[in-house]
């Protein structure tokens, strides 16, 4: 083992006020498992492209032994450019690419000369094994961690949670942080990766006790005003969700919270219980108001389920956010009109409308057509290239604009501008 190993973790540029849980998890796992074996040999640093300039990142990262990049598809271009510049300054640096994009397209990611290692799937154990020299090839993939309670909580000092909290205070007037209560999503919506390539389709949940200890820490040590769950869907198990609510109440943890909810697995009593434990809002991927489109995209929900969830949430006093999409392959103008009508009937508090984007890892991704796409140009709500049999990209944008105009007083803040 070398005298000192320096690992710099980088979250490439990202228009987001969510903290990097991925880098926080990897850091705390390495601190626990690497330092326990090798004592003080590991030096860890973190940079976030949202806050730190390229010059700063390159200057401080170039004396690293390893530099790890955490990438969704839109972040790849920035990561590749930083990796190129860092290696130009110091060719001995080993670059490691992890996250959703490298997990979905490992071979393509490994083909870049500035990429030394690609991690497929969960990163905690794989990064440790790379530091220990266990992976000699370019692509590394470790076994998933079975019992998530064994993972230390994300290291929030390391990811500079305060910086993110200051930003949420400025943008939203409150201190907001996120927690991940489980990994994986059992659904297979065609437009979504559903965490498949990273966490798999089997959902692993942390125990409610374990999650609540982390939440209590966020309340007591970081003084948060609102908690967001980063889970793909919070209600994959209603049993877990109800127990979470009961325990939260028992422990008198009163911080308000919000989460993504899948409309197929919800009932009024659970929503009521959620409200009693300060659930302030739910975010529902409604996607379309057309029954055949919902079926075609394998969303696993019906219009009726969606209407019920919104009705119940309203009755319980939970705010609702409805996310729609436009540009599914089989969607016609009539289907879009059904979407407009459903959106109106739901009477949600906040609306979002995104143009479909065939991200790697989704069923809509087609290697022959999409391998050269610049994903950094696809923002959270739109892109300039997706079109379907029924709509050109321009027409999709017009429909999106029509939707946004109709709900202009209730758009999510990113679409309001
Ligand atoms: C919260 C969230 C957001 C937040 C903030 C994200 C964040 N935390 O930084 C917001 C709302 C801003 C957001 C935006 C977008 N998101 Co998003 N988001 C999520 C969500 C729900 C949680 C992310 C999270 O915190 N996960 C928890 C951490 C621990 O997991 P992780 O990041 O995957 O990290 C693990 C591994 O990937 C790996 N790993 C990660 N980084 C690294 C680095 C190294 C060096 C190593 C070794 C390993 C490694 O190890 C980690 C621990 O095991 C995920 C779905 C999910 N549940 O994961 C989607 C998800 C990541 N988002 C996705 C997408 C597509 C987007 C958008 C592109 C949406 C859009 N249409 O524009 C934008 C991207 C904007 C941008 N500029 O990049 C996709 C990614 C697919 C892809 N191919 O890129 C996901 C998977 C959703 C999905 N199921 O399709 N998102
Ligand atoms: S849209 Fe939601 S339910 Fe569907 S695959 Fe993605 S995360 Fe899972």
Care to describe what's here?
With 417 residues, the chain is of the alpha/beta class. It is built from 17 helices and 14 strands. It is globular. The model has no long low-confidence stretch (mean pLDDT 95).
Q: What is the mean predicted local confidence, pLDDT?
A: 95
Q: Counting H and I runs of at least 4 residues, what is the number of helices?
A: 17
The span between the termini is 53 Å
What topology, given as strand order, has the largest sheet? 2-1-3-4-5-6
Share in helix: 40-55%
- Using only CA atoms, what is the Rg? 22 Å
Compute the number of strand runs: 14
Name the structural class.
alpha/beta
Overall shape: globular
The oligomeric status of these chains comes to single chain
User: What are the segments in which pLDDT stays under 50 over at least 5 consecutive residues?
Assistant: none
Outline the biggest β-sheet: 6 strands, parallel
| Cofactors, ions and other ligands in the entry | cobalamin, iron/sulfur cluster
How large a portion of the residues is in β-strands, by DSSP E?
Answer: 15-25%
């Amino acid at each position: 083992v070398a005298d000192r190993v320096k690992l710099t973790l980088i979250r490439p540029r990202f228009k987001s006020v969510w903290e990097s849980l991925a880098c926080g998890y990897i850091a705390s796992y390495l601190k626990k498992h690497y330092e326990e074996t090798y004592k003080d040999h590991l030096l860890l640093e973190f940079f976030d492209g949202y806050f730190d300039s390229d010059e700063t990142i390159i200057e401080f990262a170039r004396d690293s032994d390893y530099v790890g990049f955490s990438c969704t598809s839109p972040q790849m271009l920035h990561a590749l450019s930083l990796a190129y510049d860092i290696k130009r300054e110091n060719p001995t640096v080993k670059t490691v690419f992890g996250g959703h994009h490298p997990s979905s397209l490992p071979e393509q990611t490994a083909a870049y000369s500035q990429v030394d290692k690609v991690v497929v799937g969960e990163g905690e154990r794989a990064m440790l094994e790379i530091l220990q020299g266990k992976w000699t090839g370019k692509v590394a993939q470790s076994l998933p961690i079975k019992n998530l309670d064994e993972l230390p909580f994300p290291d929030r000092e390391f990811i500079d949670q305060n910086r993110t909290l200051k930003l949420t205070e400025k943008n939203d007037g409150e201190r907001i942080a996120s927690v991940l209560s489980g990994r994986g999503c059992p659904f297979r919506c065609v437009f979504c990766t559903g965490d498949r390539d990273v966490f798999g389709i089997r959902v692993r949940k942390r125990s409610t006790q374990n999650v609540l200890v982390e939440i209590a820490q966020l309340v007591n040590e970081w003084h948060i005003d609102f908690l967001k769950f980063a889970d793909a869907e919070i209600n994959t198990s209603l049993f877990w969700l109800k127990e979470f609510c009961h325990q939260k109440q028992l422990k008198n943890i009163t911080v308000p919270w919000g989460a993504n909810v899948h409309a197929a697995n919800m009932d009024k009593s659970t929503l009521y219980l959620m409200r009693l434990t300060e659930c302030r809002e739910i975010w529902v991927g409604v996607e379309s108001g057309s029954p055949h489109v919902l079926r075609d995209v394998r969303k696993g929900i019906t219009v009726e389920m969606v209407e019920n969830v919104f009705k119940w949430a309203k009755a319980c006093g939970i705010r609702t956010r409805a996310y729609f999409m436009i540009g599914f392959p089989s969607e016609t103008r009539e289907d879009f009109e059904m979407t407009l009508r459903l959106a109106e009937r739901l009477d949600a508090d906040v609306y979002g409308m995104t143009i479909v984007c065939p991200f790697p890892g989704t069923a809509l991704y087609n290697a022959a057509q999409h391998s050269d796409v610049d994903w950094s140009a696809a923002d959270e709500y739109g892109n300039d290239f997706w079109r379907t049999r029924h709509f050109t990209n321009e027409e999709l944008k017009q429909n999106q604009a029509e939707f946004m105009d109709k709900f202009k007083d209730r758009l999510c803040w990113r679409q309001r501008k």
